[in-house]
Amino acid sequence: MRPLNQLQQTIVNNLIHKVTYLPLRLEGTEVIETLDYVRIDCGLPADTFNIIVFRGEESTLSQEITTEIEAFLEKKFPMAVWCWDHLNHELDQELQEAGLQEAEINIAMVANLESSSPLLRLPEGLQIKEAVTSDEIKQFGEVLSSLFGTSEEADHVRSFYSKVAALPFEEDLLSNLYIAEYQGDVVTVGSLVFAEDSVGFYDIATKEEYRGKGFGTAMFHYLLQEAQQRECKLGVLQASSDGLHIYAKAGFQPVGQFKVFENRHLLEINTP
């Protein structure tokens, strides 16, 4: 495994913290951490949570990781592999030979939060708060699940956050969930993940019928303000091409990208 530079490694470390923090607190999940990768099996057939993340820039696909990929397939569990993209075409080919398909590319971005000035202007009628009750956490999961329509993935996302909602609430969690309400409906969500040297911005999503009203942008700036109030210095996130301009205006700069590979097509092929 070849090392990443410091900023890139910080982003990877925050992502690993994000994908392991809640599963480590839940029954029925399994988290394996090695020097080269982490693997999360959430106990549900959902590639939102069944994830392998490479810790560094892998030069080749190890037999150990290949075995992990095969284990998910044997269970008929969708899963995703996240790896830092350094135009390593050999790794791409090996992941494809293992049966995976490239599903998406996310731009990795960082910002010095000490110099960032969030423009928090909430649209009229929008109220944002941290999700602290069981019902609020379930509502968070409901908005995230809406990204998947009426699919089984949507059901499993709801199930996962129902498990999270059953946990006793603790102050000063290192993973904080936020919800935005509009006219009595939870319409937008977002989360912050606090690692040793960074804060990550994740899960910013809005129900389809409420998009185009600035709710997602308002949530992002609210999260920025929350992170600054906790005196976090470095912010990290992964962005789609659609959100780049919003994050760039807040001072985030691209430093690379993640590639995401999935096995879902194999499960569809093998379904009788």
UniProtKB/TrEMBL annotation:
Pfam families: Acetyltransf_7 (PF13508). Residues 126-272 form the N-acetyltransferase domain. It comes from the Bacteria. PROSITE patterns: GNAT. GO terms for molecular function: acyltransferase activity, transferring groups other than amino-acyl groups. InterPro entries: Acyl_CoA_acyltransferase (IPR016181), GNAT_dom (IPR000182), Trichothecene_AcTrans (IPR052523). PANTHER family: GNAT FAMILY ACETYLTRANSFERASE, N-ACETYLTRANSFERASE DOMAIN-CONTAINING PROTEIN. This is N-acetyltransferase domain-containing protein.
